[in-house]
């Protein structure tokens, strides 16, 4: 008997340890990791510098309530603003960050209508789940939070029809992760931003999976020539330490006055000490350029495999957030099992997409090793 709710579909392996970009299970089997713990371990596993910083802070203080000053929060917030006029609110997860974004948008505008997109994913708490455009995630939990409207992604006319002066915000992912690794079209994003300005609605960008270097720039929105009113972060921000953040334009600061929102554990000293180092290391031109080079190498190799494979329909994504769409759900399950048997862990997105989220510290040699495994699985169905 298990003493756990069966709300996760777990694989029959337990991962015991990890070093850099590899994981080891309870039987001693080693895997090249192309999951990063679902986009979390951007700097890989067992990083000596992060381990030292975490231990050093643990010997000082783990936690103080947000009733007192916290210079570490100020330090991380300044780095996350990245030279722009944003202020931060810290929490513990992406769902919490999105809940804060929804509350802030409604408080700032005095409006309640929120427009999001089909196949989006913003979390499983009630506000974030209501924002999520997937009916399978809503099942059994109705009634949802009211005034959420879902329209098709990458289509401007349905949004044009839905948005009005009652709209508090339009909320979107620049790459729909759980929905199938679907990048937003640049021209569409420009039109979305323009429509928001026309009606006085805010633009919220969910960067929980795309942020912190994942797409080859520190934030994915930098590639779309927009400046969101609000954006959210989590996953890679703490490299495995639970932490989330919601950033909003400085002019919105007064909307979250004392007592308007909060979190007991949000921005605790352990999380902030690690996040500070993660941001410092990733937000460097050399590091981000290397992510872009690895992306080019990975996509180029996968496209060569695609030419020979009858299983692959499309390769898409940005940076080291790549989706391989296969012909059907059965093929996806078979591919994932065979990759695992060959020592590579990957993820699914939607029903037919293999999602690749390797650590950003992946070496070129490891990437080549992965491509050999992909080639064997997709084209020969055997072991390299």
TrEMBL record:
<feature type="binding site">
    <location>
        <begin position="94"/>
        <end position="95"/>
    </location>
    <ligand>
        <name>pyridoxal 5'-phosphate</name>
    </ligand>
</feature>
<dbReference type="InterPro" id="IPR004636">
    <property type="entry name" value="AcOrn/SuccOrn_fam"/>
</dbReference>
<feature type="binding site">
    <location>
        <position position="124"/>
    </location>
    <ligand>
        <name>N(2)-acetyl-L-ornithine</name>
    </ligand>
</feature>
<protein>
    <recommendedName>
        <fullName>Acetylornithine aminotransferase</fullName>
        <ecNumber>2.6.1.11</ecNumber>
    </recommendedName>
</protein>
<keyword id="KW-0808">Transferase</keyword>
<dbReference type="GO" id="GO:0042802">
    <property type="term" value="F:identical protein binding"/>
</dbReference>
<dbReference type="GO" id="GO:0003992">
    <property type="term" value="F:N2-acetyl-L-ornithine:2-oxoglutarate 5-aminotransferase activity"/>
</dbReference>
<comment type="pathway">
    <text>Amino-acid biosynthesis; L-arginine biosynthesis; N(2)-acetyl-L-ornithine from L-glutamate: step 4/4.</text>
</comment>
<keyword id="KW-0963">Cytoplasm</keyword>
<keyword id="KW-0663">Pyridoxal phosphate</keyword>
<dbReference type="InterPro" id="IPR049704">
    <property type="entry name" value="Aminotrans_3_PPA_site"/>
</dbReference>
<feature type="binding site">
    <location>
        <position position="263"/>
    </location>
    <ligand>
        <name>N(2)-acetyl-L-ornithine</name>
    </ligand>
</feature>
<feature type="binding site">
    <location>
        <position position="121"/>
    </location>
    <ligand>
        <name>pyridoxal 5'-phosphate</name>
    </ligand>
</feature>
<dbReference type="Pfam" id="PF00202">
    <property type="entry name" value="Aminotran_3"/>
</dbReference>
<feature type="binding site">
    <location>
        <begin position="206"/>
        <end position="209"/>
    </location>
    <ligand>
        <name>pyridoxal 5'-phosphate</name>
    </ligand>
</feature>
<keyword id="KW-0055">Arginine biosynthesis</keyword>
<dbReference type="InterPro" id="IPR050103">
    <property type="entry name" value="Class-III_PLP-dep_AT"/>
</dbReference>
<dbReference type="GO" id="GO:0006526">
    <property type="term" value="P:L-arginine biosynthetic process"/>
</dbReference>
<comment type="subunit">
    <text>Homodimer.</text>
</comment>
<dbReference type="InterPro" id="IPR015424">
    <property type="entry name" value="PyrdxlP-dep_Trfase"/>
</dbReference>
<feature type="modified residue" description="N6-(pyridoxal phosphate)lysine">
    <location>
        <position position="235"/>
    </location>
</feature>
<keyword id="KW-0032">Aminotransferase</keyword>
<dbReference type="GO" id="GO:0005737">
    <property type="term" value="C:cytoplasm"/>
</dbReference>
<keyword id="KW-0028">Amino-acid biosynthesis</keyword>
<dbReference type="GO" id="GO:0030170">
    <property type="term" value="F:pyridoxal phosphate binding"/>
</dbReference>
<comment type="similarity">
    <text>Belongs to the class-III pyridoxal-phosphate-dependent aminotransferase family. ArgD subfamily.</text>
</comment>
<dbReference type="InterPro" id="IPR005814">
    <property type="entry name" value="Aminotrans_3"/>
</dbReference>
<feature type="binding site">
    <location>
        <position position="264"/>
    </location>
    <ligand>
        <name>pyridoxal 5'-phosphate</name>
    </ligand>
</feature>
<dbReference type="InterPro" id="IPR015422">
    <property type="entry name" value="PyrdxlP-dep_Trfase_small"/>
</dbReference>
<dbReference type="InterPro" id="IPR015421">
    <property type="entry name" value="PyrdxlP-dep_Trfase_major"/>
</dbReference>
